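Q: Got a minute? One more chain.
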Amino acid sequence: MASPWKAARVRSATATIFAEMSALAVATGSVNLGQGFPDTDGPAFLLDEARMAIASGINQYPPGRGIAPLRQAIADHAERRYGLRYDADTEVLVTTGATEALAAAMLAFIDPGDEVIALEPFYDSYAASIELAGGTRVGVGLFGPDFRLDLAEIAAAFTPRTKALLINSPHNPTGVVLSRAELAEIARLAVAHDVVVICDEVYEHLVFDEAEHIPLATFPGMRERTLRISSAGKTFSVTGWKIGWAMGTPDLINEVTAIKQFLTYASGAPFQPAVARALLSGDAWVERQRLELQQKRDRLAAGFRSIGLVPFVPQGTYFMTTDISDLGYADGIDFCRDLPSRCGVVAIPHQVFYDRVAAGKPYVRWAFCKQDHVLDDAIERLAKLRP
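A: Always. Here it is, folded:
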């Protein structure tokens, strides 16, 4: 029950399905393929760098915008990978994970009544952040069974109240990576309607097969209106460190900083030098990790097929989707709540990421960023689902 004082604007700010499913995993001893975090650590050199920083006394507040070496490493990484140049002093902000960067951006740019177009299904923090800012989210569907973007729908979504466009690619939970043609049309619409664009690119390096991550900021007219957000958590398997960042023009970064300073001000002091080193010298580790994740994706997909579940094979992220309607379920939440006691496995229902809930009901998200024996154990347990 809510207290009598709860603010009406925070409908989405409740206990999440992730907390419920993780608690079920612990209570039932289930294999947890629900919450998206790896079960192995990042590169040894990264962890050693953080230990050295702690031992050498880097344990107090860092500068509010982040330490200079990390901001420079973020800028160098953007130029090396994508040819995008950012001034480390004025166009880069270090945040407490990408989630804080997203929340601060919404609070910085969105007034009550403004509309924010976002890809639906939405990562859960998007809904809460838009609501907290007083905005209205407008979903544009990446719906099953193919989960591709309808360009006509996104064009029709713009109104005189549209203030911002929130783009997540590679996309959580579907694993879709937007194509160059799709991104070009999104960029054209953003320029035509003169909106600010917030890009969640936390899975930028977790792309598979022939898929390519292309930042929207590289398209004509986009550099000056785009806030790029990413983090170390997914790239370097240190999700608990919560070191993220935002990149954009000095005006955009100043406006996000003005909000961020009253959320956390600063955090992660001993982790910041470690992330700076990883961004500068960790490309080989990232590539090995990408290939290992692609193999894990294929391993889990083969396992699903062996038990009669048809997977949607993702182009990026570390999430895979299956349709559970052939198992006699019409509701993913019911399926996921039954699964721990029935099979000893935990997953996440897609529908919690949708405003148009019916579109997500047949689908379930599984995380494959786990050790091979964990994935194999999960498939063995899920075999109980076969008729």
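A: The two ends are 39 Å apart (CA to CA).
Q: Perfect, thanks.
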